[in-house]
Amino acid sequence: MGFAQPRWPVARVTIALIDCNAFYCSVEVLFQPWLRDRPVVVASSNDGCVVSRNDPAKALGIKMGQPVFELRDQMARNEVKIFSSNFELYQSVSNRVMAVLDELAPRIFVYSVDESFADLTGIADPEAWGRHARDEIQTRLGLGVGVGIAPTKTLAKLANWAAKRWKAKSECVVDLRDPVRQEKLLRYAKVGEVWGIGPRLNARLADIGINSAWQLATADPKLLRRQFNVNVERTARELLGLPCFPFVDGSPDRKQMIACTRSFGGRILSLDLLEGAVATFTGNVAAKLRQQSSLANCLQVFARSSPFDTTGEHYSASRIVAMPYPTDDTRDLTNAALSGLRALFRAGPRYAKAGVILSQFVERGSITDDLFAPKPRPNSEQLMRVMDAINAKQGRGTLRLACDPVGGSWSMRRELLSPAYTTSWMGLQQAKC
């Protein structure tokens, strides 16, 4: 295959990515500091598998995605501390981290619960800013972060990866504005470490001889677009320092599918309980849909028993529901999800998991009304905006549909949950640190 000669453009934009180190574990250790040098892991929903681990846990060989039951003996011997995911606590601490960054940077874009992009264009010494931000978060919140600085978002993500990989050498801050440093890191990093290159895409790139980030950056752009898609081409250009992804977007590509799927804390036999779970899931995906200003044309709902359940009938089914008009209204989406659920439900199986998936998105404001199609609900956009604002201020689920229950018997199992140190007086009293 052909490779293009790199042409390093003059950087006019400076972007930083600030990412908390092993965020879930770091938050747990923050409130139990005696665990600082001990192996700590955080389990997924229903305490199923490892979703976060600190450096001592990595040194023990504990892997991401490893089943928690495999670590029970180590926990019993007090060799590793395991926590259930305390999402409310993590979000509360995340809000504090983002507030510090908002104070320090001219402009930020929150990418995830533990990551944020900062626009440092115009700042005289971005690397000094990165060290200052690192120190401020450590001093004020007790959390360690890595800072990657570069002329594009993709390079900033790669710089952040390097900052975390070589913490001692880099002091958790890596500045890639220098083309020589860019090339050195690109030649070292595997293409799978590049933002937006997942396992499947990684394998396809390997098939045509692209194994490093440098090979992707110097590949023929026309070839990348022809064999893959425009986003792969843009990613390659970003690795050369040419901004292709706007700062305001949270990812290289707006999500084309949004899902909320959960395994239940216990088995469900009745339709009523299953409807409550699906209504909650639909509320979650509808809120995410509105966050990216999209409308959905299609909804899929599924429910199934556990393939490992030896005491009941094995059953799995799904239904796809076409929306009468593109919508992000929780009421419309919930009605469609419950309609599909009732069509697939069968009495007898012990349901262990269900989920809702939205797809076929269009951007709000880009559709032309159909004269003969049903019309959206009046004032839907305003009502959903108020609903999201209240839930953002008072907590998720404060305002919800009547069919969306709180704490149903299907709720996820969290047997190793830490107290709600920052969001509940009862949790604070329970801690008594």
Strand order of the largest sheet: 5-6-1-7-8
Q: Beta-strand percentage?
A: 15-25%
Cα radius of gyration in angstroms: 24 Å
> Spans of 5+ residues with little confidence (pLDDT < 50)?
1-11
What's the overall geometry? globular
- Characterize the biggest β-sheet: 5 strands, mixed
DSSP helical segment count: 16
- Strand tally is 12
Quickly list its features:
433 residues, alpha+beta, MutS, DNA mismatch repair protein, domain I, 5-stranded mixed beta sheet, 4-stranded antiparallel beta sheet
Question: What this model shows, in words?
Answer:
The structure is a single chain. The protein is of the alpha+beta class and 433 residues long. Among the domains are: 22-143 and 417-433, MutS, DNA mismatch repair protein, domain I (3-Layer(aba) Sandwich), CATH 3.40.1170.60; 257-394, Dna Ligase, domain 1. The protein is 39% helix and 20% strand. It contains 16 helices and 12 strands. Strand 5 and strand 6 (115-119) form a beta hairpin. Helix 13 (271-291) packs antiparallel against helix 14.
What is this structure, in a nutshell?
This protein has 16 helices and twelve strands.
List the helices and strands and how they pair.
Layout: E1 15-20, H1 23-31, E2 40-43, E3 50-53, H2 55-59, H3 72-76, E4 81-83, H4 87-104, E5 107-112, E6 115-119, H5 126-141, E7 145-150, H6 153-165, H7 167-170, E8 173-175, H8 179-188, H9 199-207, H10 213-217, H11 221-227, H12 230-239, E9 257-268, H13 271-291, E10 294-305, E11 316-327, H14 330-344, E12 351-363, H15 380-394, H16 425-431
Parallel strand pairs: 2-4, 7-8
Antiparallel strand pairs: 1-6, 1-7, 2-3, 5-6, 9-12, 10-11, 10-12
